[in-house]
Design brief:
Blueprint lengths: L11 E6 L11 E6 L4 H11 L5 E4 L5 E3 L4 E7 L6 E4 L2 E5 L4 H10 L2 E2 L11 H7 L2 E2 L2 E2 L4 E7 L5 E5 L11 H5 L2 E8 L1 E2 L2 H18 L6 E4 L9 H7 L6 E2 L2 E3 L6 E4 L5 H19 L8 E3 L6
Parallel strand pairs: 2-5, 3-5, 4-19
Antiparallel strand pairs: 1-2, 6-7, 7-13, 8-14, 9-10, 11-12, 11-13, 15-18, 16-17, 17-18
Amino acid sequence: MTTEILKLPVEIKVNEPLSKYTFTKTGGPADFLAFPKNDAELKLLINYALDKMPITTLGNSSNLIIKDGGIRGLVIMLTKFMVIKVQNNQIIAQAGASLIDVTKAASKAQLTGLEFAAGIPGSVGGAAFMNAGAYGGEVAEVITAITEILPDGREVTLRGSDLHFAYRHSVVQENQGIVTAVTFTLQPGKQPDIQNKMDELNALRASKQPLEYPSCGSVFKRPAGYFTGPLIIKAGLQGKIIGGAQVSMKHAGFIINLGTATATDYLTLIQLIQKTVQQKFNVKLETEVRIIGEDRSK
């Protein structure tokens, strides 16, 4: 493990526990954890690490489980890429900006189309990566361009059909690029109507989701013809606890950290849910949450 990277003019932490940054409050250490503030610092990191160590990019780590062994090589967190600009009916946001902040900017600018995302806690880059959605909407409906840095270091801007959006999927998962900016194209609207819709959806979210506990959000994709929560309830697993992780009593599609959970607890509980639902209902539950990193060595 080279320490030459520490000579770069970028904020870098060594052997940093990623549990400090994930929404589940779990996850092992990163060999190197970097916080670039701009494109120049990001490119500097990528150019340095390309042939020397693996690179993993994170947004605000909301719909994510990092295994207890952590991540080898360089982890880049884009949480300092936060600039949001409004240009006519478009919002151009850096990848680390909060999607919630983008919806607030849209409301202030009297632009409609993003209300469904008012409570989604992910970053803009993460939302583009997984085509985030809620309450009948998906960011695929409003994202018209992304700028990313490809694994070979080239910067490209992709538009339209090149984005390959599908359910919880985008081109970024295919080309393994690093999203640096996203363009949302919205429509003019009335600010009170926009804000009222956002408030309504946020109240609905608070009433139905266990926001008072650490969690990774919705754990599973919705299987065709079913709703995940009711399947888990019918399987008798609502409230099930493994270690410090529990299937939420408020929403069975969520797994919460009661305070002492490890990533292994999460993964063991996920596997139990998948196995039980498959056996009882012959339905395969696929994870929506992104799972990365290494198991803890024994």
